[in-house]
Amino acid sequence: MKKLERFGKEFGTLNLVPGKKVYGEKLVKRNGREYRIWNPYRSKLGTALVKGLRNFPFNENSEILYLGAGNGTTVSHISDLATNGIIYSVEFSPRAMIDLLFVSNQRKNVVPILADANKPQDYLGRISQVDILYEDVAQKNQVQILRKNADLFLKEGGSLFLMIKARSIDVTLKPKVVFRAVEAQLSPYFKILERIKLDPYEKDHLCLVMQK
Amino acid sequence: MGHILTPIGIFDYKQGNFVLLERFPNNPKKAADLFKKKQEDADLDTELGVLACKRMKKLFKENGVNFASFIHDFNVELTKINLKLELGKPDYRIIQIVNALNEIESSINLYSERLREWYLLYYPELSQKIRNPEAFAKIAAKESKKDSMGADLNDFDVNQLKDFAKFVSSTYKTRNVLENYLGTLMKKNFPNLNEVAGSKIGAALISIVGSAERLAKLPSSTIQVLGAERALFRHLTTGARPPKYGVILNHPLIQNAPRKLRGKIARALAAKISIAIKRDVYGGLFMGKDLKRDLDKKVKRIKKK
Predict the structure, then answer these.
(1) Distance (Å, whole) CA B281 – CA B91
(2) What pLDDT was estimated at residue B305?
(3) Strands annotated E in chain B
(4) What are the two backbone dihedrals, phi and then psi, of residue A186, each rounded to the nearest 5 degrees?
(5) Which of B53, B55, B81, B96 should be substituted to probe chain A, the one whose Cβ sees the most A Cβ atoms within 10 Å?
(6) Which of A112, A126, A152 sits opposite B7 (nearest CB)?
(7) Confidence of residue A1 (pLDDT cuts 50, 70, 90)
(8) Res B44 pLDDT > 80
(9) Phi, psi of A70 (to 5 degrees)
(10) Which residues contact B48 (CB under 8 A, 6 or more apart)?
């Protein structure tokens, strides 16, 4: 049984908690099973899929460190996939964390952590090493945050997903220039596997997939 | 070498092995409580921490703890502890009140205008006489008309009108109560900022950046233009002229200054605000009066030049 299915242009994940929505997404039945439609306007990983993402390491046993988990929109879809895995979901905003805690009530593979991804020592000793590091923080120093966390928590050979928001790094530069600079900062440390522009769903965003 | 803190207890590291020094209870809430307490005063070693992360599953297994369920429950409990502390910060209440006041302000103007228009049908002379909208709502809720050119409405119609006036008047009351509450919160929690910027501007600054701590970390040049983001980014992207001030524009020192000097005064004010909020956030005595006095002097000098 496939956990990730295509529904027309979009994708859907097999609902881990049948009958329950997380963020108002559509529920669709297929072969007697319920799928949650992955809204590409709400989730950047959903966008990347719609735009043809080829590297997709999320499986049943994946253990993921997710920085910038927000209200748990993307986290919930990954939680549908990594049913035997763990998603350590780091979020700094207490408002978003309230929502995330409710998500983690029903989804035991979602592990909420209220912390600043800038200060990984705050959650050091509370989590295990991971296969995938996912970062969507829209901070100016998002590259440094990624590197710090990759050093501490990501297994050798593990995958990295970085959602780059050009406007958060430098509004005065053209997004292209920002993306090139970010890649130059990361390529000495990680192998760049894939780059996917997220427009028109997300303006001036790039999804960068890498390997440690 | 330091120790390492994990959800199941405190470990020492000797000759490549983790040795359990203190075992935490199996109850996730109790374990999280202890973890939190120890985290504050423990001497934690980053390298050991990384090593512990690598071996976390093994450590759990060796101590007879189910990894998947305990790592979840423990972190949920610890996050709840941290969340409770975080939500207790006055910043969050201040931000809600700032937003509530802004929303009340815009709706209250609409209601007041509507009340005046409606009241004109009944008793236009009163509407003419009392220009202040707050006072008007209050009086309109009680006053019955005397000799007037307005329509002779029956009791039923008049009562509906007065009910609406009562509603508008009570909205003004709520606004005033919230403003007082905001003043109290600001004075109690951020006395220096409150003294220099005033409660409304100080609170607006905190609200724009999201927390007092973040405001304390900003350079005064940023504080000066907080609330003028559109103009600032227009300046940065197109090279248009930079804004001189953001929400601090509403400060009496700037309001009462001639247009030409406002930029200079804004710079001086922002500098003092920056010092004041640092004092409030990082601890220290009340120095608001001194800051205010220095600022007044500085403004006088600017005006003399």
Answers:
(1) 11
(2) 77
(3) 4-6, 9-14, 17-23
(4) -95, -30
(5) B53
(6) A126
(7) low
(8) no
(9) 60, -140
(10) B1, B2, B3, B4, B13
Contact A86 B57 (CB under 8 A): no
Which pLDDT tens digit goes with each residue over A19-67? 999 999 999 999 999 999 999 999 999 999 999 999 999 999 999 999 9
CA distance A13 to chain B (A): 22
Let me know: does A132 contact A158? Beta carbons within 8 Å.
yes
B59 and chain A in contact, CB less than 8 A: no
Tell me the per-residue pLDDT of B142-195, one tens digit each, with 9 for 90 and over: 988 778 888 888 999 999 999 999 999 999 999 999 999 999 999 999 999 999
Which tokens hold the place of B220? 């005064």
How many inter-chain contacts (A to B, CB under 8 Å) are there?
Answer: 85
For the entire predicted model, the pTM comes to 0.88
Comparing CB atoms, the residue among B54, B83, B236 nearest residue A94 is B83
Touching check for B233 and chain A: CB below 8 Å? yes
Residue contact B86–A153, C-beta within 8 A? no
- Residue A26 tokens read as 């559509």
Which range has the worst mean pLDDT, B46-55, B56-65, B213-222?
B46-55
What are the two backbone dihedrals, phi and then psi, of residue A3, each rounded to the nearest 5 degrees?
Answer: -90, -25
In A71-110, the residues whose Cβ lies within 8 Å of chain B are 86, 88, 94, 97-98, 101, 104, 108-110
Q: Strand locations in chain A, DSSP E?
A: 4-7, 10-14, 27-30, 33-38, 63-67, 86-91, 110-114, 130-135, 154-165, 191-197, 205-211
Half-sphere exposure of B198 (CA within 13 A, CB side): 13
Name which residue leads in pLDDT, A17 or B239.
A17
- pLDDT of residue B201 exceeding 90, the answer is yes
SS3 A124: coil
Q: Name every residue whose Cβ is closer than 8 Å to that of residue B231 and which is 6 or more positions away in sequence.
A: B225, B240, B242, B243
